[in-house]
Amino acid sequence: MRVPRVLVSLLVTAPLAFGLAGCDSGSKCCDPMPTGAGGDTGTGGNNATGGNSATGGNNATGGSGGSSASGGTNGGGGAKGGAGGATATGGLGGSAPKGGAGGASAAGGAGGLPATGGAGGAKGGTNGGGGAKGGAGGATATGGAGGASASGGAGGSAAGASGAAGGPPQQITTPGGTWNLAWSDEFNGSGAPDPSNWGYEKGFVRNQELQWYQPDNATVSGGLLTIAAQQVHILNPNYVAGSSDWKKSRQYYDYTSTSMTTSGKHSFQFGRFEMRAKIDIRQGSWPAFWILGDGTGWPQSGEVDIMEYYANKVLANVCTPNGSNCTWDSTNQSPASLGSTWADNFHVWAMEWDATTINLYLDDKMVNTYSVSTANSTNPNPYATKKFYVLVNLAIGANGGDPSGTTFPITYQVDYVRVYQKAN
Q1: What b/e string do you get for 255-292 counting C-beta neighbours within 10 Å, with b at 16 or more?
Q2: Which residue among 11, 188, 357, 403 is the one 20 to 30 A from 385 at the CA level?
Q3: 167: pLDDT confidence band, cut at 50, 70 and 90?
Q4: Cβ of 246: how many Cβ atoms within 10 Å?
Q5: Cα dihedral angle (161, 165, 168, 174), rounded to 10 degrees?
């Protein structure tokens, strides 16, 4: 039986609306250049064209990315297109690798200040990686077009459809219906995640996990959000000698990570919640993509774990509130049962939720289904009445196991998080 999750967040910009709910009883939550042409990988002069993989000078076009090599088991990704100059167009992304289990195609170069971003790379090979994102547009420009989606090969996963102007598709159709985009974060910038989308939990939070949560472990670069858990040895600022509170009794914290939440920023009732990500399945790792209901303490808030992984299990769970705890409707699969290279690839996790049913998917395969009426004994039923917000976090230890023999960092890479709602 997995340990339940109760949330207590200390957000930087928007604190959660509820407080502690059984955290300390062991519950899962709660707690200028000369004119001329640039050489290969060089910088173009003013008004010049950049070389391959080069950055164009002012008013110049960035060089196209070089093609990737044909490959064996793991072909390399195509090169990134050069960035455009101040008013120029970014270079095209290089082509994707050929051959078995290819890497992802390259991203288009970023456009200059008023320029258009370069187009994304081409379709993957036989077992190709995902089509690349289009380059980011300049300050007043449109982002480049997304690359073609990948063909999912053995052990690979199919990427989504090409993004219009470097962004997500505005409408999608699945066996569950037609859906319009309500909100997304494509992680196309650089630096910290977008503060208009995400707040953070801080410190020791829940489940006697080992990590100290802080914003610093989450970075955005190259079209991905990366949460990198690190091994450290830092004095716990809340330490109290002899305390019976696990959050205060630890003199030091030995791991740091990040837990991000849209609480107080974005919440939704019903819809398709979707994430494309790559998870680390080594000992100690406990990544999750989950939702909680607004305005009520756990478990009356409800909880759906669209994805969580620990102890060699990829899980999909729904909480039926039951007094001070949850009765869990849970399914799990081992990574090995999903394919020998499953953990090397990105995958798509999704939830489709309406007034009657919650369906959970991994790479378009339904892995769990839950009747909303199951929670009718809760007053009110959270899945029938509440808006829910999104959490993306990487815990260390506890259910994830002893991390002491694992080489750090442990990483969790996210391509996008999207929420769609049913088309009328």
Answers
A1: bbbbbbbbbbbbbbbbbbbbbbbbbbbbbbbbbbbbbb
A2: 11
A3: confident
A4: 15
A5: -40
Give the lowest-confidence range in 91-105, 153-167, 306-320: 91-105
| Identity at 158, one-letter amino acid code | A
Question: pLDDT at residue 159 above 80?
Answer: no
The most confident of the ranges 37-41, 130-134, 250-254 is 250-254
Burial class (CB in 10 A: 0-12, 13-18, 19+), 44: buried
Both tokens of residue 40? Answer: 């290969």
Return the amino acid letter for 48. A
Nearest to 40 by CA among 59, 65, 57, 61: 65
Enumerate residues 6+ apart whose C-beta is below 8 A from 289.
Answer: 275, 277, 305, 306, 307, 308, 349, 390, 391, 392, 417
87-110 pLDDT, tens digit per residue, is 444 444 443 333 333 334 344 444
Q: Distance between CA atoms of 34 and 95, rounded to whole angstroms?
A: 31
Q: Is 18 helix (H, G, I), strand (E, B) or coil?
A: coil
Are 273 and 306 in contact by the 8 Å Cβ rule? The answer is yes
